[in-house]
Specification:
FAD/NAD(P)-binding domain; 2 domains; five-stranded parallel sheet
Length: about 425
C-alpha cells in the first residue's frame, strides 16, 4: 500500500502524534480540527465545544508515563501537571516538529463517504476532497451518555462534559452520579463549596492514590514481563497498606478485583469521605421533585445532579449504516486497523490503564508502516481469529459495561503492538512490499 494522500480527523493528543509521524515519514496528509488550537480534550473552554476539560483538572497519569517518547515534558512540570500545562506541551510539540501548517483549524468534518476506492471528506467550509486513506482521531469523550432516570427533578441537571467549576454551588446540596475519575474530582471540588455532597454509584471502585511508596504510583517497577496476576497481587498489597479497604472510607466493596475495571485515581477523595464532606449513596432509584431517592430507600433533598455517566463512541461524519459502535462496541484489530476497510485506521480509540499519548505515537508508527508498504497485515482468517481472541480476553477480564469495550492495559498493549509490527514487517519482506 502506498497512500498518496491521507486525511487525519482531529488534532487532539492522538491526531498530532499521527501528524508528527506522517510528517517525519514524508506521508502527505491534511489534518482537520474543529477548534482553533490543538489539544482536544485538554483545552479549557475549547472553541469547538467538544472538550470536557474543567478548570481544576490535573492529569491522573504521571508526566513521565504520559509524555510522547520523543518529546519529554519539561523537568519543571509537577509529577501531575494541570490541564493548561498539558495544552501548552501539545502546542510546543507541534511547533517543535514543525507541522502546524498541515492542520486546518476551525474546520469541522461534516461527512465522510467512500467512492471508487477513495475517501471523500466534506467540511463545514464547503467542498469535498479525495483521500487515499483515512485516520480517525476524534477522541471518545465527545458524546455524553445521559442516564434514564425515573421521575422529575426540579434542580439543575448536567453531565460532567459541561462541568467547568463548582462556583455557584455555595449553600447547595449536590448529588454526583458515577464513581470514575471525573465523578470523584467533581465531588471533591463541590465538597469545598456546597452544603452537602453525595456520591452515588451502582457499584464500588478501587481508589488508587497518585503516590505510593513516595513516588507516582504508575512508576512502580512492575514491568510487563511479570505476569499480570503477580503485578496485581503486588499492587493490591501496597494499596491495602496505604489506604486500607474502600469500606474503611464509607464506600462499598467493589464486586471485582483490581485491574478488572478502569481504576479511579484520586489523592483527595478518601480524606473528604473520611471528613464527612462527601457521603456515598447507592444508585439512584428515582427523582422526586426537590429530592433524589436512592436504591436503599434513602431520600436526600438536592439542588444539583451531576451525571458522570460516561460517553458514547461517536463518528458523526459517517453514516450509521456504514460505521457505528452500538453499545460502544467497534471491533478493530489491536484497536487500530479496520478488518474490512484496509485504508481506514483509528488512533487513540482506547481506554488504557495508563495514558493514551505513547499509545497514539506507537499506533501512528504502525499505520505509517502500513501506508508505506513496510507492514503487511495477516490474512483475513488470521486477522479475524486474532480479533476475536482479543475481544474474548478483554470481555473476560473487565467488568461488563459500555466503559470497558475499548479497554487495554498500557504496557501489555504496547508490547503486543510492537510484536505485530515486527510480524508484519516479516510478512511484507516475504511479499516483497517492504
Amino acid at each position: 500500500m502506498a497512500a498518496e494522500r491521507v486525511a487525519i480527523l482531529g488534532a487532539g493528543s492522538s491526531g498530532i502524534a499521527t501528524c508528527k509521524t506522517f510528517y517525519q515519514r514524508g506521508i502527505p496528509f491534511d489534518c482537520f480540527e474543529a477548534a482553533d488550537r490543538v489539544g482536544g480534550n485538554w483545552v479549557y473552554e475549547s472553541s469547538s465545544g467538544l472538550s470536557a476539560c474543567y478548570r481544576g483538572l490535573t492529569i491522573n497519569t504521571s508526566k513521565r508515563r504520559m509524555e510522547y517518547p520523543d518529546y519529554p515534558m519539561p523537568d519543571d512540570y509537577p509529577d501531575f501537571p494541570r490541564h493548561d500545562q498539558i495544552a501548552a506541551y501539545f502546542d510546543d510539540y507541534v511547533d517543535h516538529f514543525g507541522f502546524r501548517g498541515a492542520i486546518r483549524f476551525e474546520t469541522r468534518v461534516t461527512r465522510v463517504t467512500r467512492a471508487r476506492g477513495a475517501w471523500i471528506v466534506e467540511t463545514d467550509r464547503g467542498g469535498a476532497e479525495r483521500y487515499d486513506a483515512l485516520v480517525v482521531a476524534n477522541g471518545h469523550h465527545c458524546a455524553p451518555r445521559m442516564p434514564h432516570l425515573e421521575g422529575r427533578f426540579d434542580g439543575e441537571v448536567l453531565h460532567s462534559h459541561t462541568y467547568r467549576h463548582a462556583e455557584g454551588w455555595a449553600g447547595k446540596r449536590v448529588v454526583v452520579l458515577g464513581i470514575g475519575n471525573s465523578a470523584m474530582d467533581i465531588a471533591v471540588e463541590a465538597s469545598h463549596v456546597a452544603d452537602a455532597v453525595f456520591l452515588s454509584s451502582r457499584r464500588g471502585a478501587w481508589v488508587l492514590p497518585k503516590y505510593l511508596l513516595g513516588r507516582p504510583a504508575d512508576t512502580l517497577p512492575l514491568p510487563p514481563w511479570i505476569p499480570f496476576s503477580v503485578r496485581r497481587w503486588a499492587v493490591e498489597k501496597l494499596l491495602h497498606a496505604a489506604v486500607g479497604s474502600p469500606t474503611d472510607h464509607g464506600l462499598p466493596m467493589p464486586d471485582h478485583r483490581l485491574g478488572e475495571a478502569h481504576p479511579t485515581i484520586s489523592q483527595t477523595i478518601l480524606e473528604r469521605l473520611d471528613a464527612g464532606a462527601i457521603v456515598w449513596r447507592p444508585n439512584i432509584a428515582r427523582l422526586d421533585g426537590d429530592a433524589i431517592v436512592f436504591e436503599d430507600g434513602t431520600r436526600e433533598r438536592a439542588d444539583v445532579l451531576v451525571c458522570c455517566t460516561g460517553y458514547d463512541l461517536s463518528f458523526p461524519f459517517f453514516e450509521p449504516s456504514f460505521l457505528s459502535a452500538p453499545n460502544n462496541d467497534l471491533p478493530l484489530f489491536l484497536r487500530t486497523l479496520h478488518p474490512d476497510h484496509r485504508t481506514l485506521f483509528f488512533v487513540g480509540l482506547v481506554q488504557p490503564l495508563g495514558a493514551i499519548m505513547p499509545i497514539a505515537d506507537a499506533q501512528s508508527r504502525w499505520i505509517a508502516d502500513a501506508l508505506t508498504g513496510r507492514y503487511a497485515r495477516p490474512d483475513a482468517a488470521e486477522l479475524c481469529a486474532r480479533m476475536e481472541a482479543e475481544r474474548r480476553a478483554m470481555f473476560a477480564r473487565y467488568v461488563a459495561s459500555p466503559r470497558h469495550t475499548i479497554q487495554v492495559d498500557f504496557d501489555d498493549y504496547l508490547v503486543e503492538l510492537e510484536r505485530e509490527r515486527r510480524r508484519g514487517a516479516e510478512r511484507a519482506a516475504r511479499l516483497g512490499t517492504g
